[in-house]
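Page 37, top half.
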Amino acid sequence: MEFSFPHYLLSKQSVDDRALNRTVLDSLKANLPAAPIRIIEIGAGIGTMLVRLLRWDVITKADYVLVDEMGENIESAKEWIPLWAGESGLTVERIAENQLRAFDRARDVRIHFERGDVFDFIQKKPAPADLLIAHAFLDLLPMPESMPKLLALTKDLAWLTINFDGVTSLEPAIDAALDEQIERLYHETMDARPTGGDSRAGRHLFDHLRMAGASVLSAGASDWVVHSVDGKYPADEAYFLYFILHFFEESLTGNAELNAADFASWLNERRAQIERGEMVYIAHQMDFLARV
């Protein structure tokens, strides 16, 4: 199977749609300033959060800055967002090489694409946003030292979503002891990343935000729960599951604590479970809305 990270980001749209905590989302809606607003999203991928906020009528008039380090993501965003907008009845204008405008009678969003490391972006001292978004991103960064730098990007709100919080579950069991070992070692790779990361980032954000001078307005679980219906996974979620196993394979191949043959057999059986529509995947995560 060909593995494409932009395709993975597309495939998890429906998973994220279900997972995002509605209480935290309602708090975001209640606290957003009057339009037009300025939004900065870090680790923005291909723009699925921007599209979601338009689909869900959370934003109508905005200046939206997408920041991502991966050139592949930014190039995909430049192609996919106009395609989605056109199919959704919005007019799209290309203002400049890295700027678009998508609008209709009710909505008008100017989109800016910024390729680069988030901390390099912060060094440019961009105009602070009304809302900072970090979606499935903060658990990849060194904490707590990153939080004050990130919050400098907003003068008001930070919506921090899908922060992994230490629970991965794959069902049905293959071998209880092996399953537990693989899940434990997988979490340990998150904690050992040289670039930073935390397998319990969700629960730790309460303290990181407090130490950075922010107050939590709302928080709640945003678990990924993926299962088949009548033997078939919704939307493109089978690809999403294959990519999750790809993460496991990349992270744990060659791990000295793990028997290579047992791990290869485990991966093959998990893939067969997906093919049969049997595998259930659960990951515990947390969403936050904070005010600086």
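Page 37, bottom half:
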Amino acid sequence: MAVYFSIILVVITVLTGIVWFADKFYLAPQRKLKADEAQLMAKQQSAAEITPQALATLTEPSPLVDTAVQIFPVIAFVLILRSFIYEPFQIPSGSMMPTLLDGDFILVNKFNYGLKDPVVRHKFLENGLPEHGDVVVFKYPEDPRVDYIKRVIGLPGDRVIYRNKSLYIKRACKESDAKCPEFVQVQQDFIAKYDGPDAEYGMNEYQSKMLNKDHQILNDGHILPRVGHYFQQAGTAADEFLVPANHYFVMGDNRDNSLDGRFWGFVPEENLVGEAVAIWMSFDFNRSSDSFLPQWVPTGVRFERIGAII
């Protein structure tokens, strides 16, 4: 859906832009020329001067041209802002709880990972790449029409193990390393039983200290690891993942309720949309099934979450 919206926005911008330029450099001068000719003819024929209303009729553009001229700057601004700087997204599920909740509306920075054109998504400016712990929006590899949001766990060349609900990361060896890194277990400190929005029985909240970024995660003590459903990669254990070049391994913070890289593999670099950076609005949708209002109508606003930095 986001792809179609981008295409529609580009088409409207191009069409209104053509009309704007045509009016500024051709149509408007032609209208002024006709008005000047009408005034001159009236003087030559010793007729009364043209009334302001008649003059306005000659100089004003048609309603269609006027509409295009008025909306072009606004549409162009929205296109530039949405395509190259920030784009709003809605969180549709609880896979990133407790960091992000169903009903959160976030801003995604599209500049951090380089600029891409809004239609074919070809990168024309390099500006950086994801780091461990970034929350990223990307095109779902199995259906690029769908946008997903997860946390970056593994960078290209990393080895990642998720075993017994514990995370181990072996960073890629660099030429500058005197000794290649070993596996490091990501520290997870128990906070409390989770009792926040959309809490379910058995959910526990932990503080995860992953390399360079701390964040909260959830584990459900009543759900066993589904290793048998994990993405199978040649040369690795069933719960181990070797991140290919130009790819990223991602997971949801709600570890037992997230369809993420453990089950379908890796995110190609070209699928990256941007980094989630802030929550600009958050709604509750706790409407009972017998309510006469539709389920999509919010029941309240979570003011305490507005402006939160992810």
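Margin note: The chain has a mean pLDDT of 89.
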